[in-house]
């Protein structure tokens, strides 16, 4: 596989699922010049990030994809016009790691979402992050601040506070004076410790437990 000349890393394989031929053609055209990713057709391609393009998150195509995944399966990028906020927690649980509104779905924007998912990060519009904080299910909801393994360190709180503001990992590192690698490690460790799937889950947890 060819490497992205700008980063020296191989392009991220993307498996496109579209609800109709016009959506597929549009997505392929937008992504044609994105060097950080490469479209693949083999459904068993290792490490391929699913990219779901549809008019509504309620469409049958999204439901079929979700029914065929497991919590440990590949996370996906969803490009859609409409998404009922009430279904968002279920979509995240089923493996949607990023959402891009169709009116924002340029090639660079979709490539950025794919890159975030491939790195184990989430990429959600700000309005959906707020909705997820309010509606996400399955998170602990203690009356007071948690302790022990459920507690967050001061640095973790600062990281999640910046994440809640919409900062990317590199921006968080710059603002807090740490390396990007350190921020990624801290996020990974706290999500593993608290059994949270995404950065949005972690922000929601911090909000619900009174850390933010």
UniProtKB/TrEMBL annotation:
What is this protein called in UniProt?
LuxR C-terminal-related transcriptional regulator
What's the domain of life for this entry?
Bacteria
Claim: Transcription regulation is one of the keywords in the record: yes
Q: Where is the HTH luxR-type domain?
A: 145-210
Task: Print the keywords alphabetically.
Answer: DNA-binding, Transcription, Transcription regulation
The record's SUPFAM superfamilies line, in alphabetical order, gives:
C-terminal effector domain of the bipartite response regulators
Under Pfam families, the record lists: GerE (PF00196)
